[in-house]
Amino acid sequence: MDLFAKHRNSSSQRLLIAVLVAWLLAACKASAPAADAPGAAPAEPAASVPVAAAVACPSQEFDQFLQAFMRDVAVQRAYTRDPYALTLYDPQNLEADPTTMQLAAGEVTFPVMLTADELERQGVVWEVERKAQDAYVVSAHSQGSGAYAVAFTFKRGAGCWELAGAVDAST
User: Fold this and answer.
1) What is the rounded distance in angstroms from the CA atom of residue 45 to the CA atom of residue 109?
2) How many CB atoms lie within 10 A of CB 60?
3) Which residue segments constitute the domains of the chain, with CATH numbers given?
4) Cα gap 170→140, rounded to integer Å
5) pLDDT of residue 79
6) Nearest 5°: CA angle at 144, between 44 and 119?
7) Model confidence band, residue 5 (pLDDT cutoffs 50, 70, 90)
């Protein structure tokens, strides 16, 4: 359903509105009681969390760090860069230029990345690719309509790995 049929906005305006609606829905879901799948952690806004520095770096080895990052929302909060670069493609027009936002810590909704078990339950496969000595990309994608396609970029920060940003091309 095209809510803007009478007023054809540019694709970037529609994308901005879609992003804002998604953000508001995520904020509402984060404050709602957990009635989702059993064992699934509800999304929580970053602002409701104690100071991130209290979480020790899980590992200097990326594979071990990634396992801890996917498993523990506190690790995600502590080791997601501020600002966090989020690039979104318009699911209605993937050929259009994407929109990139620099999100402050209080604007990021956690968890930013699901657990390996949850990804598998949803039929999402993920791959890890080393891009440089201090950078990895974790690509998660599913097949079919409504496909999930997100690439998470991790970089070595001050003393530990950090999630620097994500590119979401989900449809």
Assistant:
1) 5
2) 11
3) 11-168 (3.10.450)
4) 10
5) 96
6) 35
7) very low
Contact 103, 23 (CB under 8 A): no
The torsion of the CA quartet 167, 169, 170, 171, rounded to 10 degrees, works out to 160
- Residue 151 CA to residue 138 CA, distance in Å, equals 6
Instruction: Please state, in angstroms and rounded to a whole number, the distance separating the CA atoms of residues 92 and 171.
Output: 7
| Residue 157 or 15, more confident | 157
The answer to whether residues 57 and 117 touch, using CB atoms and an 8 Å cutoff, is no
C-alpha to C-alpha distance for 165 and 155, rounded to whole angstroms: 9
pLDDT in tens, 84-139: 999 999 888 878 899 999 999 899 999 999 888 888 888 898 899 999 999 999 99
The helix (run of H) or strand (run of E) holding residue 45 is strand 44-45
Render pLDDT for 12-26 as a digit per residue (tens, 0 to 9). Answer: 333 333 333 333 333
**What is 76-103 written as a DSSP string?**
HHHTEEEEEEEEE--TT-TTSPPEEEEE
